[in-house]
Protein: Lipoprotein
Organism: Vibrio caribbeanicus ATCC BAA-2122
Amino acid sequence: MKRLLLPLLLSQFICLPALANQNNTVRCLDKEPGTWFSHTDGKDYYVLAEGELDRDRDIKEKVRTMEILVCTSHVRNLDYLFYGAENYQGKLYLTNYWDTSNVTSMVMMFDSVQSRSGLSLDLRGWDTSKVTNMARLFAGIRRLHLRGIEHWDVSNVVNMSGMFEYSNITGNFRHWDTSKVEDMSKMFSGNRAILNGGSPISGLEHFNTANVTDMSYMFFSAGHVDINISRWDTSNVKDMSYMFALTEKFNSNIGGWDTSKVTNMRSLFMSTDAFDADISEWDTSKVTTMQAMFHNAKRFNTDLTEWDVSKVTNHESFAGYNNTFDPNNWPVFSN
C-alpha cells in the first residue's frame, strides 16, 4: 500500500473546478484493480477492486476523505461508504464522475453526511441500471442538493426504504421506473423541504407501485406533503402503518385503493390536519391492527360502519383525542 502515498500530490486538486465543469465518467474496466493510471483529464486515478473498500481500511479512509481520486468501474458494492462522514473541503462532488455501471447496492452510501454548506452533487452521469438496493441512500442530510437523479434508471431497484428519510430532497420523479420496488417504507419520512414548505416533490403519481408490499412511514411527518396518488396500485401492500401520520396537507382521494392484503393500519392517519377523503369502500378484511389509526385526526368523519374488521385484534385509541370523528361512524369492532 506504500504506492498509494506516491500520487497524493497537491497538483491533483489544483484544477478541481475545471473537472467539475466536465460531465465525463471516469471508466477503467480495462485497467487492473490495485493499479494507478493517468486519465485524459491529467489526473492520476487508483483502480478500486470489488470488495477492497471492505478489506482495506486505509483505502476506504482515503476514499471517504477524497484524499485520492479513484475509478470505480470494478466496484459492485458502495454500502455505507460515506455514512456519517464530513464533506471534506467540499470534495464529495468528485463522486459525480464515478463509474457506477456495475454497482448493485448503495445502502446508506451518503447517509447522514455532515456538511455546514450542504452536500451538492450532480449525479446525471451515474449509471444505476444494475442497482437493486438504495435503502437510506441520501437519508439524514439536512442540506441536500441533487441534480441529475430525475432520470436515473431505477428499473431494477427492489428496496427504496428510507431513501430520502429526513433529508430535504425535492424534484420531479415522474420518469422513475419503480415497477420492481417492494419496499418504500420511510422513503420520504420527515422530509425537511416538504416540512418547511419548500419546493415540492412531484411526479410521484407516476410511480408504479404494483409490487410494493411495505409503505409504512412512507410520508410520516412530511408536514406539507400535498400529492395526488389516488391511482397508485396498492394491491400487494401489507403494511401501511404510520404512512401519513403527522402530515398537514395530505388529502388525496385514495378511496379507490386496493387494501385487500393490508394487515397493519396502525396510526395510518394519526394527527393528520387535512385528511377527510371517503375511504368507506376500503377492503379491511385482513387488517389485524387499527391502533390509533385516526388518533388526533383533525377533520376525518367518514362513515366506516360497513368495514369488515372481524380480524382486528387491536383498535386501542382508534380515534383517541379526536373530537371530529363521530363514534357512530366508527367500524363495529367485535374483538
User: Anything to note?
Assistant: The mean pLDDT is 90. The two ends are 66 Å apart (CA to CA). The helical segments are 11-14, 16-20, 52-55, 57-64, 192-195. Strands lie at 36-38, 44-47, 70-71, 119-122, 144-147, 171-172, 201-202.
